[in-house]
Amino acid sequence: MANLFPETEDMIWTDSVGPETSEDHGAVFGRSWRFDFEAGEFVMTPTRKLVAADEKDAWVIWCEKTIRTPRYRHLIYSRGYGSELEELIGKGHGRPLLESEIRRMVSEALLADARTESVDQFQFEWEGEACRFSCRITSVRDETEMIESVVMT
Predict the structure, then answer these.
(1) What's the pLDDT at 69?
(2) Rounded to 5 degrees, what are φ and ψ at 103?
(3) Cα–Cα distance for residue pair 74/68, rounded to 1 Å
(4) What InterPro entries does this protein's entry cite (predicted)?
């Protein structure tokens, strides 16, 4: 029987073209498209072409999208993808407990990816029932970035 997924020479990744792998962690850094989370759409050039993101930006976009995507809601994602921050809504817990849970949930979600080395330096700012937080993410390549999000409690 013929192979349904044939591999030809032009389909095989090479070191110069394909994603890079870190030997010590097995992390695969690939490319993606830039996404504007405020507008909720992909970034386009004036000629309406998608703007590519480099390997670091693709990882940062993955981190932000993971935090913003509710876990278990969309069948297209694996059960390990997304965060459980929505579970904090309406629980009536005190701020110290909520901040601890946000720290735990965000760290668990982002450390599920082999590209992420650490998640730390959380900062919280409360505005009524909304908790705006930021944290520093570090990749296995020692690249860092600050990301932020909001949780309604």
Answers:
(1) 86
(2) -60, -45
(3) 12
(4) Sheath_initiator
Task: Determine, yes or no, domain membership for 148.
Answer: yes
What confidence tens digit (pLDDT) does each residue in 6-15 have? 565 544 444 4
16 within some domain: no
Whether 135 is covered by a domain: the verdict is yes
Question: Could you tell me which of 105, 113, 117 has the C-alpha nearest to residue 70?
Answer: 105
Reported pTM: 0.74
Q: Is residue 12 part of a domain?
A: no
Pick the closest to residue 88 from 70, 69, 101, 74 (CA basis): 101
Cβ 134 vs Cβ 118: under 8 Å: no
We report the CATH number of the domain holding residue 84 as: 3.10.450.40
* Domain carrying residue 77: 56-152
Helix (H), strand (E) at residue 151:
strand 144-152
33: nearest Cα among 17, 54, 63? 54
Per-10-residue mean pLDDT, the chain, length 153: 56 46 62 86 91 90 90 82 81 84 92 91 90 93 92 81
CA distances from 9 to 14, 18, 143 (A): 10, 13, 33
Query: Any residues with CB less than 8 A from the CB of 96 and at least 6 apart, and which?
Result: none
